[in-house]
Design a protein that fits this description.
Elements (H helix, E strand, L loop, with lengths): L1 E10 L2 E11 L4 E5 L6 H8 L7 E6 L2 E2 L4 H6 L1 E4 L11 H11 L4 H14 L15 H13 L5 E5 L7 H16 L3 E6 L2 H7 L2 E6 L2 E6 L1 H6 L5 E7 L4 H10 L3 E4 L2 E6 L2 H14 L4 E7 L3 H9 L7
Parallel strand pairs: 3-8, 3-9, 6-7, 7-8
Antiparallel strand pairs: 1-2, 1-4, 4-5, 9-10, 11-13, 11-14, 12-13
Helix pairs in contact: 3-4, 3-5, 5-6
Length: 308
Amino acid sequence: MISVLNLRKTFDTIEALKGISFNIQQGECYGLLGPNGAGKTTTISIMSTILEASEGKVSIAGYDLKKNPLECKRNIGVVTQEIALYNELSAYDNLLFWGGTYNVPKTELTKRIDETLDQLGLTDRKNDKVKTYSGGMKRRVNIASALLHRPKVLFMDEPTVGIDPQSRNLIFEVVEKLHKDGMTIVYTTHYMEEAERLCDRIGIIDDGEIIAEGTLAELRTSGSMKETVVISFTNLSDERYTTIVKDWYDLQRFEDTIHFYSMNIQGDLSKIIIKCNEAGLDIMGIDIRKINLETIFLSLTGKKLRDK
């Protein structure tokens, strides 16, 4: 359904994408996971014809993006980070406008609007002006506008940023329903729990490069992934941290916490606690983390997924 080959994008002297390649199968929900500034939005913007690539090739539904951009546009729906709605119009009128830009016949369009508003839990407020909506409700209308022409591929660029838990859960349910019905979805996020819940396969992107790709199970078993003991302290200093580093080489410091990595947490936990006590550290809390996308990303990059 989607093929990306050696995609590059340069802004002046900044190389935002450094020759990334990946393929997405029909009906697959593919997650692009990474911190802000990693290249997720640039990738989506190129694939959805908003930006032009510096180099590389993209094909969507059998069409070359460069040679047949209009055919590609007909097959895609795009949910951008920025909400593109008219605040003085109602949700219904906004959707009438956006549906018209896709040349959906009016009789069919009104039916689709009603179905989509119901799907996104907005029927009761469909005639209210968008300016009276919460941020989460506006984002749901934004998603609705991308579905009216029944696209084969849906691009969703961080659709849950800054919204309330109710809207977030509803969006999850909608994505899961669309996925179950066979829609191909490309979903960017820096929230690991979203990718774990929604995506069949995940590409981890950092500094403009795909550094790992696969199912969650494949990513967990790739390389020598380790479990993590996260210990927070009340008196962590540079001197005490230096003492710990001498005794335990596989660790990282994040402000007042230390992440200890281990292939056998059950056997190593007591040793770690003893080393902390010997260094004069006062333990405030201990969190044992199994291998997930957060630990995978930390292992690969040394960064947190939510680094700015």
